[in-house]
Amino acid sequence: MVISKPKQSIAEVITVGTELLLGQIVDTNTQHLAQEMARLGINCFYHTTVGDNKERIIACIKAALKRADLIILSGGLGPTADDLTVECMAKALEVELDMHQPSLEHIKKFFSTRNIVMPETNAKQALIPRGAEPLQNDTGTAPGIYWDVQPELLSKLNIECNRIMVALPGVPFELKHLFKVQVTPRLMQDGEAGSATIYSIDLRHYGIGESALAERYADLLHLSNPTVAPYAGHGECRLRVTAKAASLEEAKALTKPVVDQIIERSGPLLYGFDDTNLETECARLLTQKGMTISLAESCTGGLMSKLLTDIAGSSKFISLNLVTYANEAKEKMVGVPSEILAQHGAVSEECAKSMARGVRLLTSSVIGYAITGIAGPDGGTADKPVGLVWLALDTENETITKELRLPSHLSRKEIRTRTAKEALNMLRLYLV
Amino acid sequence: MVISKPKQSIAEVITVGTELLLGQIVDTNTQHLAQEMARLGINCFYHTTVGDNKERIIACIKAALKRADLIILSGGLGPTADDLTVECMAKALEVELDMHQPSLEHIKKFFSTRNIVMPETNAKQALIPRGAEPLQNDTGTAPGIYWDVQPELLSKLNIECNRIMVALPGVPFELKHLFKVQVTPRLMQDGEAGSATIYSIDLRHYGIGESALAERYADLLHLSNPTVAPYAGHGECRLRVTAKAASLEEAKALTKPVVDQIIERSGPLLYGFDDTNLETECARLLTQKGMTISLAESCTGGLMSKLLTDIAGSSKFISLNLVTYANEAKEKMVGVPSEILAQHGAVSEECAKSMARGVRLLTSSVIGYAITGIAGPDGGTADKPVGLVWLALDTENETITKELRLPSHLSRKEIRTRTAKEALNMLRLYLV
């Protein structure tokens, strides 16, 4: 019996676990649940994390019941004494726990199919607050819980409407699976899923910083629906366009004129959308143009090769890549003349050119590509500091080179990563 | 003036940002701050995330002031209208904001050295609640804030002791830097840093699953100080031993007998501690033994080469690696006989052996190592499904091979990653 249900649901996510408070693991469940809420059009005003402590979990649940009408708890459903979530849900509302026989059978079966006798502590996982619904968990032992809490139970907290409380296991793939298969349909059916949908699209840029991007699009950053916001990370920038509307189609339609305008204004700085990255874009262009490439990498040690072969179907455009780490390998494998090495050194425009040419001829590829530089932390000199990198792209008709001077305080890892991204971007600009 | 200070500080972390509530970014700041608190012996009972909403940020701050004596806010220090943290800190305690001239000069200088005129909105970042201390930020524009809030300001909230409120920028590297350089020393000086220190050590295992590890160490999992807990992730398992004591030395001493026992019992399943990973361990062993290696990779496309050259000084043991992606490259570069390719195929023990031998002879390395397999999603057959991989390690005296049959439902990325880890582990076991 539902007495009153707010039209716009407000949710709160509570993650339970002392390991989270100690920073021993990063809380990806909250992000997943937040994304799913946004997709379902459910507003979330707070996320809370609390440790394995009865009193504080109960306090969190009570606070959430007062300010949200959908509460999703993650974690604390395990078999040990530290797993307190279900007990605290029951305590917060002063109801009993009942042993749910089908869940107990499921847990026993889970062990018996693995030829293990169920440890007695696991029986605890089949305890369900009276009035709540257990959610069968095909991926683990602990059932989830979906509880449409009626106002009778809430009156002592001075809450007049019903509330929905959901408990999910903390293991990320169990949580994701149960949320998708068991919780989402119930939220839709109970009308918790909102009347509005949020849609976001990322416009990925390379070669411009966050503040420069924000300045260029200052006129768009104050829009309200869609909103436009810049994000930076890993040497790249994204503009995220987000709209809210009654349906996904309407939300998408709201973003379209703004997205079109950004595409037009950004030109080649914009290289893709959402999950596209520089390597998928390079792979797409290489495949589309039927071009082959081979690489001779030095300081990146195979990173660019790894990135390009991350893409399924990369065997269409790559047959051989080399990591010519030592000077000897540069001479022997791709025929860099020893005079170039002696006169200009391995980190030089001349050496990069020669490596690119050499690897192209060795493999009969359309494009030969070379990277040589100083990734550090050692090996830098006043003349050639850590962070100095030469890129070369060689074809039958032309050779393009580029010098990078990356900040020498960057870590070896960052220098290698940024170098690979710069190299992919130079390849992309050549292919476009 | 400090009227009363609890001996054991209790902290609360509040992260501010609607993008967190929408799940658009994962909140790594909370984890970092949580780890730092644990290191400083400060207990943290709650983490809260709240959106860019004045009323709700103030409510969060007030709730935190009541239950914690150290409140650390992250995010919302930017120049835009959405950045509300400082304003809300002042509102919660009903004090004015003052323009802090040195911070304003710092922000202006930040722009002028980049040949940009400071946008007027950035001046807002120099506003500081009256009585609070600005923390100079060498890595960005927004100063942090350290505020030893006196009881006079708190009496209206019925709080009798003083409180410390800290605000840090949401950009992770700015937050980390300011926390380390500016906040930690102040917490130590103000006696907030606890009288107990928590020390954790990770014992990294490879080749055993989480449940098998938990079962093997069931006798240790119920200890209380130190505690022992298993963690799984990325195909590896860790046992974390955590102790709490008055000093770091005492905490370390508490873990020692348990750590020694695990080392003894795990044998070669245990490969390292804390931030050690399979590649650093392989690099250490190769360097220690003065051995050189060269790789011929197929399905991993350079990933193992990338991992081994992530290590500074890898030029000591690597001169050349090959990504022999196409059959032609396997024949031409490392001399795999065409009969092997015709009879057994590229994904076969024979081909892996031949690749390993070929690359060893080509480079005159001590170890030749080859990886060939089917990373998918296409290219699998009933006979040779996606996930089938052959590894071969060749030296002058012996050839070791290993067949992997990884679950074919894994993604291309997972198959490549697990293959590289298995390959590194096989190399490690050879070197040990």
How are the SSEs ordered, and which strands pair?
Two copies of one chain form a homodimer.
Chain A: E1 10-16, H1 18-21, H2 28-40, E2 43-50, H3 54-67, E3 70-74, H4 85-92, E4 97-99, H5 101-112, E5 127-129, E6 133-135, E7 144-149, H6 151-154, E8 163-168, H7 172-189, E9 197-205, H8 210-216, E10 227-233, E11 236-245, H9 248-266, E12 270-273, H10 278-289, E13 293-297, H11 303-309, E14 320-324, H12 327-334, H13 338-343, H14 349-363, E15 367-373, E16 388-394, E17 399-405, H15 412-431
Parallel strand pairs in A: 1-2, 1-3, 3-8, 13-14, 13-15
Antiparallel strand pairs in A: 4-5, 6-7, 7-8, 9-11, 9-12, 10-11, 15-16, 16-17
Helix pairs in contact in A: 2-7, 3-4, 10-15
Notable characteristics:
six-stranded mixed sheet; elongated; five-stranded mixed sheet; 15 helices; Molybdenum Cofactor Biosythetic Enzyme, Chain A; 432 residues; disordered N terminus; homodimer; alpha/beta; Maf protein; Alpha-Beta Plaits
Task: Write up this protein.
The structure is a homodimer of 432-residue chains. By secondary structure, chain A is an alpha/beta fold. Chain A has 3 domains: 10-189, Molybdenum Cofactor Biosythetic Enzyme, Chain A; 197-273, Alpha-Beta Plaits; 278-431, Maf protein (Alpha-Beta Complex). Helices cover 39% and strands 24% of the residues of chain A. The first copy, chain A, has 15 helices and 17 strands. Chain A has helices spanning 18-21, 28-40, 54-67, 85-92, 101-112, 151-154, 172-189, 210-216, 248-266, 278-289, 303-309, 327-334, 338-343, 349-363, 412-431, and strands at residues 10-16, 43-50, 70-74, 97-99, 127-129, 133-135, 144-149, 163-168, 197-205, 227-233, 236-245, 270-273, 293-297, 320-324, 367-373, 388-394, 399-405. In chain A, the strands form 4 sheets. Chain A has a 6-stranded mixed beta sheet, sandwiched between helices. Chain A starts with 9 loop residues before the first strand and ends with a helix. Residues 1-7 of chain A have low confidence and may be disordered. At the A-B interface, helix 1, helix 2, strand 2, helix 3 and helix 11 of A face helix 1, helix 2, strand 2, helix 3 and helix 11 of B. Strand 2 (43-50) of chain A pairs antiparallel with strand 2 (43-50) of chain B, so a sheet runs across the interface.
